[in-house]
Design goal:
By secondary structure, the chain is mostly helical. Helix content is about 75%, strand content about 0%. The chain has a single domain, classed as MetI-like (MetI-like fold). It comes from Bosea caraganae.
């Protein structure tokens, strides 16, 4: 009976391959919403960090090191919680300067990179001065900038911008010059203007390079803001986190120094993760560096 029913039903078309020879695609298991292969990369640094903190706390207690020389992690954590109100306000001031400097670096860096690739004469005239700004230590010129700017916040912004500017400029120039020359010739063959070639070919080709520079400049903007605050040494309600470190150092409140350093480090890590996420979001569908591979 079943054989007769089978003959009466339409049979699927045979594609000429054996079922056993067809590839089987396996889905990677997920743990707490993440692929299982991602967890070792997450847990390994966490375990190392916990062990290092435990060893640090053990050595401080065993050697009875006074907190004004080297405080333990537990005391630093307690200080971070107790002084959160003061330190968080100063951190926001430092981050405000950081993000403003990064935004200015993006605007000026990308704009100059586009102009330089459109005019080699302009690039030869101005790029050496950008290199001079990059190689000159910001600590050496920060006092002059503070004097010339006349405004502390403006001088801090300029110092942070100088540090963050060059990676975006140089990486974007490299990306714009790395566009496929065969495609450039193809655009020229069909009568595309220079700005059409820039918009539809060179800028997309430069995007991965720009994003790489952005990840570098994000951390450098924070470093530039902190260094400028150290040089300025401004106090009061509008003081950044660098001044809190100086103040705590003068008063031998070393646990507060470490607490402020932790906040700066965590902010730098957050900026790097944010820029990395933006890079992945923009490149994941088409660029080789962000595409997922089997191995």
């Amino acid at each position: 009976m079943s054989a007769s029913l089978d003959h009466g039903l339409p049979q699927p078309a045979h594609d000429g391959t054996d079922a056993e020879a067809r590839p089987v695609f396996l889905t990677e298991p997920r743990v707490l919403g993440l692929p299982a292969s991602a967890w070792p990369r997450i847990l390994a640094p966490i375990v190392i960090g916990v062990l290092a903190l435990a060893l640090w706390e053990f050595v401080v207690r065993w050697k009875q090191i006074p907190p004004y020389i080297l405080p333990g992690p537990l005391l630093i954590g307690q200080t971070l919680v107790a002084d959160w109100g003061t330190l968080s306000g100063s951190l926001l001031i430092t981050l405000r300067i950081t993000f403003m400097a990064l935004a200015a670096a993006i605007i000026f860096g990308v704009s100059l990179a586009v102009l330089f690739t459109q005019s080699k004469w302009l690039e030869m005239s101005l790029l050496p001065y950008a290199v001079i700004l990059q190689v000159t230590p910001i600590v050496a010129i920060a006092p002059l900038i503070i004097i010339w700017a006349g405004d502390i916040n403006l001088s801090l912004l300029i110092c942070a911008w100088i540090v963050a500017f060059f990676p975006i400029l140089s990486n974007t120039i490299l990306g714009l010059n790395s566009a496929d020359h065969n495609l450039i010739n193809f655009f020229q063959l069909y009568g595309a203007t220079r700005w059409q070639t820039m918009r539809y070919l060179k800028l997309p080709a430069a995007l991965p390079y720009f994003l790489a520079g952005l990840k570098i400049s994000g951390g450098l903007a924070l470093i530039g803001a902190v260094v400028a605050e150290f040089v300025a040494g401004t106090g009061g309600t509008e003081s950044g986190l660098a001044y809190r470190i100086l103040e705590a150092g003068y008063q031998l409140k070393i646990p507060r120094v470490f607490a402020a350093l932790i906040m700066i480090s965590m902010s730098g890590i957050a900026i790097f993760l944010a820029t990395s996420w933006i890079s992945h979001l923009l490149l994941r569908r088409w660029h080789e560096s962000a595409l997922k591979r089997e191995n």
